[in-house]
Amino acid sequence: xxxxxxxxxxxxxxxxxxxxxxxxxxxxxxxxxxxxxxxxxxxxxxxxxxxxxxxxxxxxxxxxxxxxxxxxxxxxxxxxxxxxxxxxxxxxxxxxxxxxxxxxxxxxxxxxxxxxxxxxxxxxxxxxxxxxxxxxxxxxxxxxxxxxxxxxxxxxxxxxxxxxxxxxxxxxxxxxxxxxxxxxxxxxxxxxxxxxxxxxxxxxxxxxxxxxxxxxxxxxxxxxxxxxxxxxxxxxxxxxxxxxxxxxxxxxxxxxxxxxxxxxxxxxxxxxxxxxxxxxxxxxxxxxxxxxxxxxxxxxxxxxxxxxxxxxxxxxxxxxxxxxxxxxxxxxxxxxxxxxxxxxxxxxxxxxxxxxxxxxxxxxxxxxxxxxxxxxxxxxxxxxxxxxxxxxxxxxxxxxxxxxxxxxxxxxxxxxxxxxx
Length: 421
Ligand SMILES: *Cc1c(COP(=O)(O)O)cnc(C)c1O
Description:
Elements: H1 3-10, E1 27-31, E2 34-37, E3 42-45, H2 48-51, H3 60-70, H4 84-96, E4 101-107, H5 110-127, E5 134-138, H6 147-152, E6 168-172, H7 180-193, E7 196-201, E8 205-206, E9 212-213, H8 216-228, E10 232-236, E11 260-263, E12 275-280, H9 281-287, H10 306-319, H11 322-342, E13 348-354, E14 357-362, H12 371-382, E15 385-386, E16 393-396, H13 404-420
Bound molecules: pyridoxal-5'-phosphate (PLP).
């Protein structure tokens, strides 16, 4: 039996309605930007396997560093024990994170990094003898699939069975030049009616909302307001972190820095699952006490896995190299030229770009996981490109190491789709 059929026996895939989507393509190996299926057909990974493998699949530099670590130390308990890969990673990350960040808390995926950030914000106030119970989040945000993360996410069509168990969350629209004044009024109202503990946001680009982009100045106004009200600000940079926006973090484009930052996805270059929740010293200080109960009693078994730390260190070194920085500039300018080429196409409703993230909305209306979307998805596959349209949005987030030829193939296939559908 081929892999694709053996898969169906026992595997339950994430985010999948198996009755409607029984088939999964079995990938046997990958190199650089290319995925190879069990029949040898190749696909350009135009979304970097959910924005993780930004330095290409099986990157030899990262692979070598992880292999070296494999010979030294695989995994140990990260409470009462520590190790150099985590210590070195903390030193290197602090150099690149916004200057106000001071402490790092390790976990193993984006959702847990968000859970930890939420717990930090709630317990920060609790430890300071203030009961604050409500969180603020953007409409259409996505922060993960665990309960806390689901609560603050705004895309709710799939959350029906769980809504009764959610945290208390109030939502505000993402900022535009036109709505920001009203949003500040709304925030003032919320503060007068609720005890607001924290505000969580995806800075500049909302990934799961189909790469919806918003105004940096407006976001800065919201953050300034939160600071004045002592509302803990949490930047979820799980998707935007590590160069996607053209700078190391999306928060680097915004004057007011977050109190807490969530990191995962590209952190390890897609080699291993790992996440980090960083925070400023003042947050940490609120937990630092002779009272054991004021500590943050949260932990995951695989916290700060040494192999994952070594992958993250190698990734960070690559990100800062001239080669990758020049590639990022090249991709940004190629996207701009592609935009020139297609933004007036009759099937294109609108286009947008932040850094290496490019998205276009089709003039055709589609359901998020509906039939036309599937036809489009299959069209891309047939043409050797792995793209996952979200509703009527097609977006590109290719590895930094993608060649210009591969990038042009993605553009050509998208253009062909525009002429076909
Ligand atoms: C993917 C994502 C998450 C969740 O990360 P997982 O590792 O899938 O749990 C959270 N926030 C943002 C912005 C994401 O893109």
